[in-house]
Design goal:
The protein is α/β, with parallel strands linked by helices. It has seven helices and ten strands. A hairpin with a 2-residue loop joins strand 8 and strand 9.
C-alpha cells in the first residue's frame, strides 16, 4: 500500500465509508455458533463428502440486510414446505421427518441473522448446515443422494474471503468476509478496544517524551494483536488487508 489512508477507522460507520462495505456486528468465532456456517473450502468439502438419501438442499436469493426480511422469510418457508412435499413424493420408503425437522430448525435460526445475496440450507438424516452466499442463486429445492453445492463452489471462486485488520491509536478490529460484506470476529485472547488503557495513563510526559511513549504503547498493542491475527492466519490463511493511519500502518508493517 503506497499511500495508506490517514483517517481514523475507529467507528463502524467510518469503516463502511472508507472500505465501501457493509460491516456486521461482532460474531463469536468457533464451531458452537448456531445459524449460518462459515463459507470456506472446508465446509464445501464436508458437504460434498456426504452421501445419504434423502439429502435436501434449499437455495434462495435474499436481500442483504442485518436481519432477514419478512418477504424473504415467507419465501424460505414456502421452499422448506416444498422440500417436505418433494421428499414425501420422491422418497416414500424413507423416514423423512428428521430431515424436515432439521430444515425447519435451520430456517428458524437464520431468520434473525444477517443475510447476503442468497442463502442455502442443507439437511440429511445426520447432517445440516445453513450458508450465507455472496451472489444470487436460482430459488429451488433439490432432493438427491448428495447436496447441491455448485453455487457454493461458484461463490468461493468469484468472491474469495478476505481478512481486514483496522488499526487506530486506541483500537484494533478484525473483520472477515467477502468484498462488499464484512463481519467483525471476536478472537480468543484478543480485545478490539485493547488500547483504551491509554486514557488512564496519567504520566506527566510532554513533547517528544510523550510522543515516544505513545509510539511504544502502540507498538506493544500491535505486536499483541499481530500474534493473535498470525495464529488465526495459520489456522485459516486468507488474503490480508490492513487499514489505518500512516503511523499505524508503519507499526504493523514492522511487526
Amino acid at each position: 500500500m503506497d499511500r495508506p489512508p490517514t483517517r481514523d477507522f475507529r467507528r463502524p460507520r467510518r469503516i463502511r465509508r472508507a472500505l465501501g462495505v457493509a460491516v456486521s456486528p461482532p460474531e463469536p468465532s468457533g464451531a458452537d455458533q448456531r445459524g449460518a456456517a462459515l463459507l470456506d473450502d472446508v465446509l464445501v468439502g464436508r458437504l460434498q463428502a456426504i452421501r445419504a438419501y434423502p439429502c435436501a438442499s434449499v437455495l434462495m436469493t435474499t436481500a442483504p440486510a442485518a436481519r432477514m426480511s419478512t418477504r424473504d422469510a415467507a419465501q424460505l418457508d414456502r421452499l422448506v414446505t416444498a422440500a417436505g412435499r418433494r421428499m414425501v413424493a420422491e422418497a416414500p420408503h424413507c423416514i423423512t421427518e428428521p430431515v424436515l425437522a432439521r430444515l425447519h430448525r435451520l430456517a428458524e435460526e437464520t431468520r434473525g441473522q444477517r443475510t447476503g445475496r442468497a442463502i442455502a440450507l442443507y439437511a440429511s438424516d445426520d447432517h445440516d448446515a445453513a450458508v450465507v452466499l455472496p451472489l444470487s442463486v436460482v430459488d429451488r429445492v433439490v432432493v438427491d443422494p448428495t447436496f447441491a453445492t455448485r453455487d457454493l463452489v461458484r461463490s468461493l471462486a468469484r468472491h474469495p474471503r478476505v481478512r481486514v485488520v483496522v488499526a487506530s491509536d486506541r483500537h484494533v478490529r478484525v473483520l472477515e468476509g467477502w468484498s462488499g460484506q464484512l463481519a467483525e470476529v471476536l478472537l480468543e485472547g484478543f480485545s478490539s478496544s485493547s488500547g483504551r488503557e491509554g486514557r488512564g495513563d496519567r504520566s506527566f510526559a510532554f513533547g517528544r517524551e510523550a510522543d515516544r511513549g505513545r509510539r511504544a504503547r502502540s507498538a506493544v498493542r500491535a505486536r499483541r494483536a499481530a500474534d493473535v491475527v498470525a495464529a488465526r492466519h495459520r489456522q485459516e490463511p486468507l488474503p490480508l488487508v490492513l487499514a489505518g493511519g500512516s503511523r499505524q500502518i508503519a507499526i504493523w508493517r514492522k511487526v
